[in-house]
Amino acid sequence: MKAVVFDFDGTMLDTENLWYTETMNYLKETYGIDLPDEVYQQIIGTSEEPIIRYMMEATNGAFDKEAFLTTVAEACHLGQQSLGFRDGFKEFFEQVKANDYKIGLATSSGFDWIEPTLDRLGILTDFETIQTADHVDEIKPHPALYLQAVEALGVKPEEAVAIEDSKNGALSAMQAGLKVYIVPNEATKNITFPKEATVVSSFAEINLK
């Protein structure tokens, strides 16, 4: 292997639980609706469209999409400022750097969401390429983000490993031809992942050799 491409949300730091809590609270407080977990799980690693479709039907079209997206995003931006790395991530990241792997990032989020946190945590300049939703027409599970990441790193897909936490992210990387390791978090631990991906309980279990 020559390269490691990381996901951001839920993989490096546990933003997924933050998004989950803020989303559920907003929908309950504003519309009195308890969103089913199976609907929420569909958005992890991709866009909020499954929630929007569900809420439009549940409210007979009264759901205010823009208010939902804006309010939840603002709350999560604020909450993210106090988040640190997931347990074991920093040690694994330092190991990747020490072994001279090319390092990339592929995320369905926008650059303005990830940049302040990567800078605050001191790893922004460690990435040779950062591919975000701003760079593609289709986000995960479409393979575009990972295809662009490996191209920018100058390696073949089969020479790279993707580190993910979600099903949509895993599908994206697999379709691009990368080997995939999944380190589930609290929001994704009950999801059934593709059998071709390797699911581990901690970053320490990932073997890049």
From TrEMBL:
<dbReference type="GO" id="GO:0016787">
    <property type="term" value="F:hydrolase activity"/>
</dbReference>
<keyword id="KW-0378">Hydrolase</keyword>
<dbReference type="InterPro" id="IPR023198">
    <property type="entry name" value="PGP-like_dom2"/>
</dbReference>
<dbReference type="InterPro" id="IPR041492">
    <property type="entry name" value="HAD_2"/>
</dbReference>
<dbReference type="InterPro" id="IPR036412">
    <property type="entry name" value="HAD-like_sf"/>
</dbReference>
<dbReference type="GO" id="GO:0046872">
    <property type="term" value="F:metal ion binding"/>
</dbReference>
<dbReference type="InterPro" id="IPR023214">
    <property type="entry name" value="HAD_sf"/>
</dbReference>
<protein>
    <submittedName>
        <fullName>HAD family hydrolase</fullName>
    </submittedName>
</protein>
<comment type="similarity">
    <text>Belongs to the HAD-like hydrolase superfamily. CbbY/CbbZ/Gph/YieH family.</text>
</comment>
<dbReference type="InterPro" id="IPR006439">
    <property type="entry name" value="HAD-SF_hydro_IA"/>
</dbReference>
<keyword id="KW-0479">Metal-binding</keyword>
<dbReference type="Pfam" id="PF13419">
    <property type="entry name" value="HAD_2"/>
</dbReference>
